[in-house]
Design brief:
Layout (H helix, E strand, L loop, with lengths): L5 E12 L2 E12 L3 E5 L6 H9 L6 E6 L2 E3 L4 H6 L2 E4 L11 H5 L6 E5 L2 E4 L1 H14 L16 H14 L4 E5 L7 H16 L3 E6 L2 H7 L2 E6 L2 E7 L5 H8 L2 H12 L4
Parallel strand pairs: 3-10, 3-11, 6-9, 9-10
Antiparallel strand pairs: 1-2, 1-4, 4-5, 7-8, 11-12
Helix pairs in contact: 5-6
């Protein structure tokens, strides 16, 4: 496989905060049009890795490449400008604003100007947001309804659809199913599959193997800031992924020690 097959690469990237090593020599390669699952328990370094990919943090060591070219972002906007969009757990949505206004927040279509004040074309925003959400399988009752009336799964889907509409080539999803029920989680996974079908590359960050394994094409496992390796789905079973996440070798050692303890 040639370097051109990868849209995004981390090459032995480390991130150090003072005396704390948050990431150590992490290598990650994201192919075009694949879902790459980043797995790890709390404290594994997932949040630091997300912020490094999104342009919040600069690597202390190592190289970050997009389209085979080294990059060093000064802000998340620079990452967004070349098509790397991150959907965080808080979603960056305003509950009291409408679906249409949230969909176009920061990129509002302008109908006219009143002096120096732009006037948003709210009807165009409503029409386009409804259409684009419907294309992704999300049917809103009224694009003027407050987004606070929507379910958690619907909000996640809206945030993802918004990123896709505004040109995301790489979609980084931070625990999108963490607080959702079974049906809502399924809807989010279905939306990820539709994004992949459009040729969008997805990094799906989660600690839930049961959500990652059905949708993922490849998996990178993190533990205490270090990569335990990257595996294609054909090369690793769900049980093996679970065992690595749970620290199978460490668990066996602990059980052996406990068996020798007399209470």
């Amino acid at each position: 496989m040639s370097a051109n097959d990868y849209i995004l690469e981390l090459d032995r990237v480390s991130k150090i905060f003072g005396s704390v090593i948050a990431l150590q020599d992490v290598t990650l390669q994201l192919r075009r049009g694949e879902v790459h699952c980043l797995l790890g328990d709390n404290g594994a370094g997932k949040s630091t890795l997300i912020k490094t990919l999104a342009g919040v943090h600069k690597p202390t060591r190592g190289e970050y490449r997009v389209d085979s070219q080294p990059v060093r972002f000064d802000s998340p906007k620079e990452a967004l400008d070349i098509g790397i969009a991150t959907v965080y757990q808080d979603l960056a949505l305003v509950p009291l604003m409408s679906v249409a206004r949230n969909f176009f927040m920061g990129r509002e279509p302008i109908k006219k100007w009143l002096g120096f004040l732009p006037v948003m074309d709210i009807e165009l925003a409503a029409e386009v947001s409804s259409q684009k959400l419907a294309e992704m399988g999300i049917h809103v009752r009224d694009p003027h309804q407050a987004i606070g009336t929507m379910s958690g799964g619907e909000k996640q889907c809206l945030a993802i659809a918004r990123a896709i509409h505004f040109g995301a080539r790489v979609l980084i999803l931070d625990e999108p199913t963490a607080a959702l029920g079974v049906k809502q989680s399924f809807n989010v996974l279905r939306l990820i599959d539709r994004a992949r079908a459009k040729g969008i590359s997805v990094i799906f960050i989660t600690h839930n193997v049961n959500h990652a394994y059905p949708i993922g094409d490849s998996f990178t496992l993190l533990n205490r800031g270090k990569s335990l390796g990257t595996y294609a789905k054909s090369a690793i079973s769900k049980d093996e992924v679970l065992d690595m996440m749970a620290g199978g070798a460490e668990m066996q050692k602990l059980m052996a020690e406990l068996q020798g303890v007399t209470i």
